[in-house]
Design brief:
two-stranded antiparallel ribbon, binds magnesium ion, binds 2-acetamido-2-deoxy-1-O-phosphono-alpha-D-glucopyranose, Aminoglycoside 3'-phosphotransferase, Chain: A, domain 2, globular
Length: 344
């Protein structure tokens, strides 16, 4: 990315000041993200939406617009383009959006600080209280079957079918684990649970904090669409109670930090008291479901030649898969404990 091109893109938005420098933010697996410094304030976050993943980027803005028309606040402030849209399109297919950068804000890839867990609980609870009783009928499903484990398993099986016998042997342990565990999660898809407006990517590093570590709001708004409370709960908790990130190769470092779970639940109380019993009952299982499903997706992508998630070395998706599936097993061992805390 060069400064000239960035200037060209920025010239399409209503911004204050002019570009002085920029920094690529590399934590996301999908979009291209840049922090933009200008000679004025606010600073900005610029993103190019990955159109291979998001085939209908306009749907993302459609959902956000629905929310904002009801004066519901997601926190994020999109900057209007000079054509009065919250994005611009260049070369016919590249969607770019610009957001105000929250001055002094920060995110965490992993943590063992219970105060942060408490704040995460509050932020996620706040999101769900805000969107409670939202009429979901008008919302677009941005990514079809995004959190459907049955279809993720189907995609995984399709990828396995293309492997030769030698390769199958290399992956036999992981394949067996996936086959054994996937049945445990069927109950999520056979239960008639409430649909709610969900963030659908509520992992720790998508929760924004101010400089004093107070939780602000959820960032990364691409996947806001109807879903189950389990998806959001499971995704936040999996990244919060695990002291290491999903990039860690040393599986011994993967743990379940009980203190973090208790602290998160304290912050999440308002939503916990608000949801139905059948949703509450499955929350502990969701802490295993989400990493399991992400692990299956990462392995599928590895087998397919890393076409979906960004990787910086060839086996990165395999490392993620082993890591995530390992955490899912640990989470299953902690199901009873989580149930006890949730019910207390
Ligand atoms: C992707 O790009 P990022 O990191 O926000 C993915 C999530 C996964 C995550 C892995 C649209 O999100 O589902 O949880 O990687 N998003 C999409 O941590 O596939
Ligand atoms: Mg995302």
């Amino acid at each position: 990315m060069d400064k000239h091109l960035l200037n060209k893109i920025l010239s399409n938005f209503e911004i204050t000041g002019s570009l002085t420098s920029f920094k690529k933010i590399s934590s996301g697996y999908i979009n291209d993200t840049f922090k933009i410094f200008t000679d004025g304030y606010p600073r900005y976050i610029l993103q190019k939406i990955n159109s291979k993943v998001f085939k209908k980027p306009k749907d993302i803005f459609y959902n956000i617009d629905l929310i904002q028309k009801k004066s519901m606040n997601i926190g994020i402030r999109l900057v209007d383009s000079k054509f009065n849209k919250p994005y611009i399109v260049i070369n016919d297919s590249e969607f770019w959006r610009l957001m105000d950068y929250e001055d002094g804000s920060q995110t965490f890839n992993n943590t063992t600080d219970p105060e942060i867990a408490l704040e995460c609980g509050k932020v996620l609870s706040n999101f769900h209280i805000t969107f409670e009783n939202t009429d979901l009928s008008k919302f677009k499903y941005i990514l079809k079957d995004f959190h459907s484990l049955p279809s993720r398993i189907q995609q995984f099986n399709d990828a396995c079918k293309k492997l030769n016998k030698e390769k199958i042997k290399d992956f036999s342990d992981l394949i067996n684990t996936i086959n054994t565990f996937s049945e445990k999660f069927q109950i999520v898809y056979s239960s008639k649970l409430n649909k709610r407006l969900c963030h659908n990517d509520s992992k720790l590093n998508n929760i924004l904090f101010d400089k004093n570590k107070k939780g602000l709001y959820l960032i990364d708004i691409d996947t806001i669409m109807p879903g189950l409370i389990l998806y959001d709960f499971g995704d936040t908790v999996r990244t919060l109670v695990n002291p290491t990130s999903e990039e860690e190769r040393d599986l011994k470092k993967i743990k379940f930090n009980k203190k973090m779970f208790v602290s998160f639940i304290t912050g999440f109380k308002p939503t916990l008291l608000n949801i139905e019993q059948n949703e509450r009952d499955l929350l502990p299982l969701s802490v295993a479901l989400m990493p399991f499903m992400h692990g299956v997706r990462a392995l599928t992508d590895h087998l397919n030649g890393n076409k979906y998630f960004k990787v910086s070395y060839p086996d990165q998706n395999l490392v993620r898969a082993k890591n995530l599936i390992k955490f899912a097993q640990i989470a299953l061992n902690n199901e009873k404990y989580m149930k006890k805390i949730i019910n207390s």
